[in-house]
Amino acid sequence: MPVSFRIDRLRPVVALFAAALIAGTATLAHAQQQEPRKQQTQPQKPAAKPKAPAAAPAKPAAPPVAAKTEALPPSQVGIGTLARQAFMVDPQTSSVMLFKDADQPMHPSSMAKMMTIYIVFEELAAGRIKLDTRFRVSERARNMGGSRMFVELGSEVAVEDLIKGMIILSGNDACVVVAEGLSGSEESFADRMTKRGRELGMTKSVFKNASGWPADGQFTTARDLAVLAWRTIDDYPKYYRYYSETNWTYNNIKQENRNRLLKITAGTDGLKTGHTEEGGYGQATSAVRDGRRLILVVNGLTSMAERAQETSRLMEWGFREFTNTTIFRAGDTVVEAPVWLGAQDKVPLVVGRAVLVTTPSGQAASPRVVARYDGPLPAPLVKGTQIGTVAVALADGRIIEYPLEVGADVARMGVIGRVTTMIQHYLFGWLS
To answer: Is 172 helix (H, G, I), strand (E, B) or coil?
Structure first.
């Protein structure tokens, strides 16, 4: 695979995943928030189904929503979808495979709970709370409608149970308990959610409560939720496992996780569904196969069944139609850099993590690679020190940057060697 290199002066490293996502498509031309249970959303069946006229020929039964999928509404990037908003990304490469109005404001619904849960994970990782820390249930929490964990007024609930209540049961009551336990009030906690979201790169999200219950001025985007999903997975793998649990019993009430893809789509390990009357049915989903992860956010679908079917279809498409190619493995040498006043003339510059690119299946990956650093590098040098970046220019015009590190220790020359080299430099100039 041809790869070209060019040494350039050091430039600032591009912001993390959120900024890469923003670049990813830059080149491309109030009702109740309850997640209704299946039996509540299905219309009552008539007593008898009318029979077709005898003369009419029998037709095979069509698969669900087959008529709709024949002419799907188009997306700006990728295939058409029934979803009003959709965004699919490979977080390892920041490659956007599906984009449909993904920066359009939309109701977060219960997908807002991902932000509440992220903050809980953050508190756990920092040691400020523990899984067995207990928060008291207020009257406000107990009286929450919609999807519930069914906590009891005045009881104290362990943080681990509240995490399961928010993720598996989509409990609005659990969210209020957490918000009040961590910030004193839900309003204060919502301000914290918005602020933390902005720090993560969720530039178009505003939260007004901890559960996603419909509220004026509360909104997010499909892209922002994808950023949040990846930060949750990448920052807190120890706690992310809760998202893969399919059911849970609390207070003698067993409820199923509304994320049907956990059971029907291979590799699915999270994240969260949501629904409002105005915003429709949505879902943030992640799945991993053969070490490759995809994150998908959809919203604006018309039913739980359509949400499950469309989300599964899009995820299968993403894994089938795209593949990742490794350009450099972690530790591979990208280029050798000259060393100034070092015990050796050159030092390898390596990538600390694998450099991957996403391409359509069957298409060869041939990106241009540019090593950017400020050279020659003055000795001494310590292995692992970040010294610049590797810029990978993709076919769609995007440029993704990875840290470039010193691959070996390099000591300084002895006194005589340094004096000799400096005399040569000042008399003859740098000749290398």
So the answer is: helix
Residues 164-174 pLDDT 10s: 999 999 999 99
Are residues 256 and 378 both part of a single domain? Answer: no
- 70-98 residue pLDDT tens: 578 899 999 999 999 999 999 998 899 99
Cα distances (angstroms) measured from residue 294 to each of 168, 273, 282, 377 = 21, 16, 17, 38
Q: Kindly state whether residue 289 falls inside one of the protein's structural domains.
A: yes
Q: Are 123 and 129 in contact (CB under 8 A)?
A: yes
Residue 223 sits in the same domain as residue 342? no
pLDDT band for position 15 (cuts 50, 70, 90): very low
Question: pTM to 2 decimals?
Answer: 0.78
CA torsion sign for 112, 113, 118, 123 is positive
Q: Is there a single domain that holds both residue 283 and residue 305?
A: yes
pLDDT digits (tens, 9 = 90+) for 276-306: 998 999 999 999 999 999 999 999 999 999 9
- The span from the CA of 270 to the CA of 262, in Å, is 7
Is residue 146 within 8 A of residue 112, CB to CB? The reply is no
Compute φ and ψ for 129, nearest 5 degrees: -135, 165
Q: How many domains does the chain have?
A: 2
Q: Catalytic positions, please? A: 110, 113, 170
Cis upstream peptide for 271 (omega within 30°): yes
Helix (H, G, I), strand (E, B) or coil at 157: strand
Lookup result for tokens 């649990």? 245
Structural domain of 205: 81-325
Contact present, 34 and 145 (Cβ < 8 Å): yes
Write phi, then psi, for 272 (nearest 5 degrees).
-145, 140
CA gap 88, 100 in Å, rounded: 9
Q: Which residues of 366-375 are buried (b: 16+ CB within 10 A; e: fewer)?
A: ebebbbbbeb
**What percent of the chain clears pLDDT 90, i.e. is strictly above it?**
63
